[in-house]
Amino acid sequence: MKMQDVHFNSVEELLDYLPRDERNMVEVLRHLVFDSVPRCREKLAYQVPFYSGFRRICFIRPGSVPWGKVRQQGVQLGFCYGFMMEDETGFLEKGNRKQVYIKTFMKPSDINADLVKAYLFEAVRVDEAMRKIRRG
Questions:
Q1: 14, 40, 87, 131 — which has fewest CB within 10 A?
Q2: Cα torsion at 94, 97, 41, 22 (round to 10°)?
Q3: How far, CA to CA in Å, does 80 sit from each of 13, 50, 103, 133, 136?
Q4: Nearest to residue 101, comparing CAs of 79, 74, 127, 123?
Q5: What are the pLDDT digits (tens) for 43-68?
């Protein structure tokens, strides 16, 4: 059974598929990721863009791209190792998840660039710490 009814060959195809507001939010978030995560690699996985350093750091999931039969509202910025990040302000949505934490944006004006960058820097810190542990 397929998890998703859509398939994209590139991030550009994904962007072309999205409604205007979602596309705008995805483009803003992509820009923030590329500005904040040095030498990150962007790759589609599960039909959404994931960004990696040593390991996967974060992803952007537009609500128009279903996960199984579930469609979300807004655009999610997910942190693959969110459970290891400092989150004193409670910015991240944990839900019932043990590892991946997210932040959902409903409209472009919801995106606070400075706050998002701070969390991206924290995610990079976690990624670099895991790399150092792995190297010994």
A1: 131
A2: -60
A3: 24, 9, 12, 17, 22
A4: 79
A5: 999 999 999 999 999 999 999 998 77
* Six token digits for residue 57: 């750091």
Region of 128 (left: φ > 0; alpha: ψ -120 to 50; beta: rest) is alpha
| pTM for the full predicted model | 0.92
**Phi and psi angles of residue 42, each rounded to the nearest 5 degrees, phi first:** -105, 130
| Joined tokens for residue 98 | 């043990």
CB 129 within 8 A of CB 100: no
Q: Are residues 40 and 57 in contact, defined by beta-carbon separation less than 8 angstroms?
A: yes
